[in-house]
Protein backbone atom coordinates (compact mmCIF):
# COMPACT_ATOMS: atom_id res chain seq x y z
CA UNK A 1 0.00 0.00 0.00
CA UNK A 2 1.40 3.38 -1.03
CA UNK A 3 2.41 5.70 1.78
CA UNK A 4 0.10 8.71 2.14
CA UNK A 5 1.70 12.15 2.39
CA UNK A 6 -0.41 13.77 5.09
CA UNK A 7 1.68 16.96 5.34
CA UNK A 8 1.47 17.44 1.58
CA UNK A 9 -2.29 16.82 1.61
CA UNK A 10 -2.79 19.66 4.09
CA UNK A 11 -0.09 21.87 2.54
CA UNK A 12 1.90 22.26 5.77
CA UNK A 13 5.51 21.71 6.76
CA UNK A 14 6.56 18.68 8.81
CA UNK A 15 7.14 20.81 11.90
CA UNK A 16 3.77 22.60 11.68
CA UNK A 17 2.00 23.38 14.96
CA UNK A 18 -1.47 22.12 15.81
CA UNK A 19 -2.90 25.58 15.13
CA UNK A 20 -1.30 25.63 11.66
CA UNK A 21 -2.73 22.20 10.92
CA UNK A 22 -6.13 23.34 12.16
CA UNK A 23 -6.02 26.44 9.96
CA UNK A 24 -4.94 24.46 6.88
CA UNK A 25 -7.63 21.85 7.41
CA UNK A 26 -10.33 24.49 7.88
CA UNK A 27 -9.39 26.15 4.60
CA UNK A 28 -9.41 22.88 2.67
CA UNK A 29 -12.57 21.60 4.37
CA UNK A 30 -14.42 24.71 3.26
CA UNK A 31 -13.10 24.29 -0.27
CA UNK A 32 -13.72 20.59 -0.75
CA UNK A 33 -16.89 20.03 1.24
CA UNK A 34 -19.06 17.67 -0.88
CA UNK A 35 -22.09 19.94 -0.56
CA UNK A 36 -20.16 22.67 -2.39
CA UNK A 37 -19.04 20.40 -5.23
CA UNK A 38 -20.29 20.89 -8.80
CA UNK A 39 -22.62 18.11 -9.93
CA UNK A 40 -19.92 16.46 -12.03
CA UNK A 41 -17.30 16.50 -9.23
CA UNK A 42 -19.21 15.34 -6.14
CA UNK A 43 -17.34 12.02 -5.95
CA UNK A 44 -13.99 13.77 -6.40
CA UNK A 45 -14.77 16.31 -3.66
CA UNK A 46 -15.95 13.61 -1.28
CA UNK A 47 -12.74 11.59 -1.72
CA UNK A 48 -10.62 14.71 -1.26
CA UNK A 49 -12.58 15.67 1.86
CA UNK A 50 -12.02 12.20 3.31
CA UNK A 51 -8.29 12.41 2.61
CA UNK A 52 -7.75 15.76 4.28
CA UNK A 53 -9.92 14.71 7.25
CA UNK A 54 -7.84 11.58 7.68
CA UNK A 55 -4.63 13.62 7.44
CA UNK A 56 -5.88 16.08 10.06
CA UNK A 57 -6.94 13.29 12.41
CA UNK A 58 -3.40 11.88 12.39
CA UNK A 59 -1.34 15.08 12.39
CA UNK A 60 -3.56 16.71 15.00
CA UNK A 61 -3.01 13.84 17.45
CA UNK A 62 0.47 13.87 18.99
CA UNK A 63 0.69 10.10 19.46
CA UNK A 64 -0.52 9.26 15.96
CA UNK A 65 1.66 11.96 14.46
CA UNK A 66 4.75 10.52 16.12
CA UNK A 67 3.90 7.06 14.76
CA UNK A 68 3.34 8.51 11.28
CA UNK A 69 6.64 10.43 11.35
CA UNK A 70 8.50 7.23 12.25
CA UNK A 71 6.71 4.60 10.17
CA UNK A 72 4.54 6.42 7.59
CA UNK A 73 0.84 5.91 6.96
CA UNK A 74 1.22 2.14 6.47
CA UNK A 75 1.32 1.79 10.26
CA UNK A 76 -2.39 2.67 10.16
CA UNK A 77 -3.38 -0.07 7.71
CA UNK A 78 -6.73 -1.65 8.41
CA UNK A 79 -8.52 1.64 9.03
CA UNK A 80 -6.61 2.68 12.12
CA UNK A 81 -5.88 6.09 10.67
CA UNK A 82 -9.53 6.94 11.01
CA UNK A 83 -9.69 6.02 14.70
CA UNK A 84 -10.67 9.15 16.58
CA UNK A 85 -13.03 10.57 13.94
CA UNK A 86 -16.04 9.31 12.02
CA UNK A 87 -16.52 10.72 8.53
CA UNK A 88 -20.29 10.43 8.79
CA UNK A 89 -20.22 12.34 12.08
CA UNK A 90 -18.21 15.16 10.48
CA UNK A 91 -20.65 15.37 7.59
CA UNK A 92 -23.58 15.53 10.00
CA UNK A 93 -21.87 18.42 11.84
CA UNK A 94 -21.67 20.41 8.64
CA UNK A 95 -25.10 19.48 7.31
CA UNK A 96 -26.90 20.25 10.56
CA UNK A 97 -26.23 23.95 10.09
CA UNK A 98 -22.95 24.11 12.00
CA UNK A 99 -20.79 24.44 8.89
CA UNK A 100 -19.31 27.65 10.22
CA UNK A 101 -18.71 26.18 13.67
CA UNK A 102 -15.42 24.63 12.64
CA UNK A 103 -14.06 24.25 16.18
CA UNK A 104 -16.65 21.57 16.95
CA UNK A 105 -15.62 19.62 13.88
CA UNK A 106 -11.92 19.98 14.65
CA UNK A 107 -12.56 18.80 18.21
CA UNK A 108 -14.35 15.79 16.75
CA UNK A 109 -11.35 14.95 14.61
CA UNK A 110 -8.95 15.33 17.53
CA UNK A 111 -11.03 13.42 20.02
CA UNK A 112 -12.59 16.39 21.77
CA UNK A 113 -16.30 16.10 21.16
CA UNK A 114 -17.48 13.00 19.34
CA UNK A 115 -19.63 10.35 20.86
CA UNK A 116 -16.55 8.14 20.81
CA UNK A 117 -14.89 10.36 23.41
CA UNK A 118 -15.22 9.11 26.94
CA UNK A 119 -14.05 10.37 30.29
CA UNK A 120 -13.30 6.82 31.34
CA UNK A 121 -9.68 5.72 31.36
CA UNK A 122 -8.84 3.61 28.33
CA UNK A 123 -6.06 1.14 27.76
CA UNK A 124 -3.33 2.30 25.36
CA UNK A 125 -2.49 0.48 22.15
CA UNK A 126 0.25 -2.14 21.89
CA UNK A 127 3.69 -1.75 20.35
CA UNK A 128 5.43 -4.33 18.14
CA UNK A 129 9.21 -4.62 17.96
CA UNK A 130 10.98 -7.18 15.77
CA UNK A 131 14.40 -8.59 16.59
CA UNK A 132 16.71 -11.23 15.13
CA UNK A 133 18.49 -13.97 17.06
CA UNK A 134 20.87 -16.78 16.08
CA UNK A 135 20.29 -20.52 16.39
CA UNK A 136 22.83 -20.50 19.21
CA UNK A 137 20.58 -17.99 21.01
CA UNK A 138 17.67 -20.43 20.59
CA UNK A 139 19.81 -23.14 22.19
CA UNK A 140 21.05 -21.10 25.13
CA UNK A 141 18.60 -18.21 25.53
CA UNK A 142 19.68 -14.58 25.35
CA UNK A 143 18.90 -11.01 26.37
CA UNK A 144 18.06 -8.18 23.98
CA UNK A 145 18.13 -4.44 24.63
CA UNK A 146 15.01 -2.82 23.16
CA UNK A 147 15.14 0.97 22.51
CA UNK A 148 11.85 2.80 23.00
CA UNK A 149 10.81 6.37 22.20
CA UNK A 150 7.32 6.78 23.62
CA UNK A 151 4.87 9.05 25.34
CA UNK A 152 4.23 8.46 29.02
CA UNK A 153 2.00 10.05 31.62
CA UNK A 154 3.62 13.07 33.20
CA UNK A 155 4.63 12.18 36.75
CA UNK A 156 4.55 15.83 37.84
CA UNK A 157 0.79 16.22 37.25
CA UNK A 158 -0.13 12.54 37.20
CA UNK A 159 -1.11 12.84 33.54
CA UNK A 160 -3.75 15.54 34.14
CA UNK A 161 -1.92 18.44 32.50
CA UNK A 162 -2.58 20.76 35.43
CA UNK A 163 -2.48 20.88 39.23
CA UNK A 164 -5.63 22.90 39.97
CA UNK A 165 -9.12 22.26 38.57
CA UNK A 166 -12.55 23.80 38.98
CA UNK A 167 -15.97 22.55 37.99
CA UNK A 168 -16.76 23.22 34.31
CA UNK A 169 -19.32 26.06 34.13
CA UNK A 170 -20.34 25.11 30.59
CA UNK A 171 -21.81 21.75 31.60
CA UNK A 172 -22.18 22.46 35.34
CA UNK A 173 -19.68 19.74 36.13
CA UNK A 174 -21.66 16.96 34.48
CA UNK A 175 -19.30 16.49 31.53
CA UNK A 176 -22.23 16.55 29.07
CA UNK A 177 -24.24 19.22 27.33
CA UNK A 178 -27.74 19.16 25.87
CA UNK A 179 -28.30 20.60 22.42
CA UNK A 180 -31.56 21.22 20.64
CA UNK A 181 -31.53 20.54 16.92
CA UNK A 182 -34.23 21.47 14.43
CA UNK A 183 -34.99 18.80 11.84
CA UNK A 184 -37.81 18.29 9.29
CA UNK A 185 -39.43 16.06 11.92
CA UNK A 186 -39.38 18.66 14.69
CA UNK A 187 -37.04 19.61 17.53
CA UNK A 188 -34.76 16.98 18.95
CA UNK A 189 -32.60 17.23 22.02
CA UNK A 190 -29.23 15.52 22.02
CA UNK A 191 -26.82 14.91 24.88
CA UNK A 192 -23.18 15.01 23.87
CA UNK A 193 -19.83 15.24 25.67
CA UNK A 194 -18.92 18.75 26.71
CA UNK A 195 -16.38 20.09 24.18
CA UNK A 196 -14.86 22.47 26.72
CA UNK A 197 -13.88 19.99 29.44
CA UNK A 198 -13.88 16.94 27.14
CA UNK A 199 -16.54 15.28 29.31
CA UNK A 200 -14.33 15.44 32.42
CA UNK A 201 -16.61 17.89 34.26
CA UNK A 202 -13.76 20.16 35.31
CA UNK A 203 -11.48 22.74 33.76
CA UNK A 204 -7.76 23.26 34.49
CA UNK A 205 -6.83 26.50 36.20
CA UNK A 206 -3.12 26.26 35.50
CA UNK A 207 -0.77 24.36 33.22
CA UNK A 208 1.83 21.82 34.24
CA UNK A 209 5.28 23.13 33.33
CA UNK A 210 6.76 19.68 32.88
CA UNK A 211 4.39 18.60 30.11
CA UNK A 212 3.05 21.96 28.90
CA UNK A 213 -0.49 21.02 29.89
CA UNK A 214 -0.57 17.92 27.68
CA UNK A 215 -0.36 15.44 30.53
CA UNK A 216 2.18 13.50 28.47
CA UNK A 217 5.95 13.59 28.17
CA UNK A 218 8.15 11.83 25.64
CA UNK A 219 10.81 9.53 27.02
CA UNK A 220 13.62 7.61 25.44
CA UNK A 221 14.37 4.45 27.33
CA UNK A 222 15.95 1.03 26.92
CA UNK A 223 14.55 -2.13 28.42
CA UNK A 224 16.13 -5.56 28.74
CA UNK A 225 14.02 -8.42 27.39
CA UNK A 226 14.93 -11.99 28.29
CA UNK A 227 14.45 -14.41 25.40
CA UNK A 228 14.15 -17.96 26.76
CA UNK A 229 15.85 -20.97 25.18
CA UNK A 230 13.68 -22.91 22.75
CA UNK A 231 11.74 -20.03 21.18
CA UNK A 232 10.35 -20.54 17.68
CA UNK A 233 10.66 -18.26 14.67
CA UNK A 234 7.77 -15.78 14.64
CA UNK A 235 7.02 -16.15 18.36
CA UNK A 236 6.00 -12.98 20.21
CA UNK A 237 7.01 -12.20 23.77
CA UNK A 238 4.86 -9.76 25.75
CA UNK A 239 6.25 -7.08 28.03
CA UNK A 240 3.39 -5.65 30.06
CA UNK A 241 2.91 -1.91 30.33
CA UNK A 242 5.55 -0.88 27.78
CA UNK A 243 3.13 -0.02 24.96
CA UNK A 244 1.37 3.24 24.07
CA UNK A 245 0.13 5.44 26.88
CA UNK A 246 -3.59 5.10 27.65
CA UNK A 247 -6.05 7.95 26.94
CA UNK A 248 -7.63 9.76 29.90
CA UNK A 249 -4.80 8.67 32.20
CA UNK A 250 -5.54 5.04 31.39
CA UNK A 251 -3.08 2.15 31.63
CA UNK A 252 -0.46 1.68 28.94
CA UNK A 253 -0.65 -1.08 26.38
CA UNK A 254 1.90 -3.85 26.08
CA UNK A 255 5.08 -4.27 24.05
CA UNK A 256 5.30 -7.36 21.86
CA UNK A 257 8.76 -8.53 20.80
CA UNK A 258 8.57 -10.70 17.67
CA UNK A 259 11.42 -13.18 17.28
CA UNK A 260 13.05 -13.94 13.93
CA UNK A 261 15.60 -16.77 13.95
CA UNK A 262 18.35 -16.20 11.38
CA UNK A 263 19.36 -19.10 9.09
CA UNK A 264 22.44 -21.00 10.26
CA UNK A 265 25.47 -21.58 8.07
CA UNK A 266 25.55 -25.35 8.74
CA UNK A 267 22.48 -26.46 10.68
CA UNK A 268 18.86 -26.73 9.52
CA UNK A 269 16.19 -26.59 12.20
CA UNK A 270 13.11 -28.84 12.09
CA UNK A 271 11.04 -28.32 15.23
CA UNK A 272 13.53 -29.05 18.03
CA UNK A 273 15.76 -31.30 15.94
CA UNK A 274 18.69 -29.94 13.97
CA UNK A 275 20.09 -31.50 10.80
CA UNK A 276 23.59 -31.39 9.37
CA UNK A 277 25.37 -33.12 6.49
CA UNK A 278 29.05 -34.07 6.96
CA UNK A 279 31.51 -35.60 4.48
CA UNK A 280 33.39 -38.84 5.21
CA UNK A 281 36.02 -40.57 3.15
CA UNK A 282 35.63 -43.89 1.33
CA UNK A 283 38.05 -45.44 3.79
CA UNK A 284 36.07 -44.22 6.80
CA UNK A 285 32.85 -45.55 5.31
CA UNK A 286 34.44 -48.92 4.53
CA UNK A 287 36.49 -49.52 7.68
CA UNK A 288 34.53 -47.38 10.16
CA UNK A 289 35.84 -44.53 12.29
CA UNK A 290 35.13 -42.17 15.20
CA UNK A 291 34.68 -38.65 13.83
CA UNK A 292 34.38 -35.24 15.43
CA UNK A 293 30.95 -33.71 14.75
CA UNK A 294 30.00 -30.06 15.40
CA UNK A 295 26.84 -29.61 17.48
CA UNK A 296 24.97 -26.46 18.51
CA UNK A 297 26.70 -26.57 21.91
CA UNK A 298 30.19 -27.76 20.89
CA UNK A 299 31.86 -30.79 19.30
CA UNK A 300 30.92 -34.41 19.99
CA UNK A 301 32.18 -37.82 18.81
CA UNK A 302 30.12 -39.94 16.42
CA UNK A 303 30.95 -43.60 15.71
CA UNK A 304 30.76 -44.51 12.02
CA UNK A 305 30.30 -48.29 11.68
CA UNK A 306 32.24 -50.21 9.03
CA UNK A 307 30.36 -50.54 5.76
CA UNK A 308 28.39 -47.32 6.13
CA UNK A 309 26.66 -46.23 2.94
CA UNK A 310 26.48 -42.66 1.69
CA UNK A 311 23.34 -40.70 2.75
CA UNK A 312 23.02 -42.72 5.98
CA UNK A 313 21.49 -40.65 8.81
CA UNK A 314 22.66 -41.04 12.41
CA UNK A 315 20.74 -39.73 15.42
CA UNK A 316 22.63 -38.01 18.23
CA UNK A 317 20.25 -38.04 21.20
CA UNK A 318 19.59 -34.77 23.03
CA UNK A 319 22.06 -32.84 20.85
CA UNK A 320 19.31 -30.71 19.31
CA UNK A 321 17.46 -27.69 20.66
CA UNK A 322 15.58 -27.35 23.95
CA UNK A 323 11.87 -26.62 23.95
CA UNK A 324 9.95 -24.26 26.17
CA UNK A 325 8.52 -27.34 27.88
CA UNK A 326 11.94 -28.62 28.99
CA UNK A 327 12.18 -31.50 26.47
CA UNK A 328 15.16 -31.72 24.14
CA UNK A 329 15.51 -32.42 20.44
CA UNK A 330 18.12 -34.56 18.67
CA UNK A 331 20.77 -33.86 16.08
CA UNK A 332 20.40 -35.76 12.81
CA UNK A 333 23.71 -36.31 11.01
CA UNK A 334 23.69 -37.34 7.35
CA UNK A 335 27.03 -38.68 6.12
CA UNK A 336 28.06 -38.27 2.52
CA UNK A 337 30.87 -40.42 1.14
CA UNK A 338 33.25 -38.30 -0.90
CA UNK A 339 35.42 -39.57 -3.72
CA UNK A 340 38.85 -37.91 -4.04
CA UNK A 341 39.34 -36.01 -7.28
CA UNK A 342 43.11 -36.48 -7.35
CA UNK A 343 45.12 -39.44 -6.02
CA UNK A 344 48.83 -40.19 -5.99
CA UNK A 345 50.44 -43.16 -7.74
CA UNK A 346 50.88 -44.94 -4.43
CA UNK A 347 47.23 -44.36 -3.54
CA UNK A 348 46.16 -45.80 -6.89
CA UNK A 349 48.15 -48.99 -6.18
CA UNK A 350 46.55 -49.33 -2.76
CA UNK A 351 43.07 -48.83 -4.21
CA UNK A 352 43.75 -51.51 -6.82
CA UNK A 353 44.71 -53.88 -4.04
CA UNK A 354 41.37 -53.16 -2.35
CA UNK A 355 39.39 -53.76 -5.53
CA UNK A 356 36.16 -55.54 -4.72
CA UNK A 357 35.41 -59.01 -5.96
CA UNK A 358 33.13 -59.40 -8.96
CA UNK A 359 29.47 -60.04 -8.14
CA UNK A 360 28.63 -63.72 -7.81
CA UNK A 361 26.91 -65.62 -10.63
CA UNK A 362 23.92 -66.20 -8.38
CA UNK A 363 23.30 -62.43 -8.30
CA UNK A 364 23.14 -62.18 -12.09
CA UNK A 365 20.94 -65.27 -12.20
CA UNK A 366 18.38 -63.49 -9.98
CA UNK A 367 18.37 -60.51 -12.31
CA UNK A 368 18.43 -62.14 -15.75
CA UNK A 369 17.07 -65.60 -14.96
Characterize this entry briefly:
The chain has 369 residues and is an alpha+beta fold. Helices cover 26% and strands 28% of the residues. The protein has helices at 6-10, 18-32, 42-59, 62-71, 87-98, 102-109, 135-140, 282-287, 345-353, 361-368, and strands at residues 127-133, 142-153, 165-167, 176-183, 186-193, 202-204, 216-227, 236-239, 255-261, 268-270, 273-281, 289-295, 298-304, 313-316, 331-338.
CATH architecture of the largest domain: Orthogonal Bundle
Q: What is the CATH level 1 assignment of the largest domain?
A: Mainly Alpha
Major sheet attributes: 4 strands, mixed
N- to C-terminal distance? 69 Å
Topology, element by element:
Elements: H1 6-10, H2 18-32, H3 42-59, H4 62-71, H5 87-98, H6 102-109, E1 127-133, H7 135-140, E2 142-153, E3 165-167, E4 176-183, E5 186-193, E6 202-204, E7 216-227, E8 236-239, E9 255-261, E10 268-270, E11 273-281, H8 282-287, E12 289-295, E13 298-304, E14 313-316, E15 331-338, H9 345-353, H10 361-368
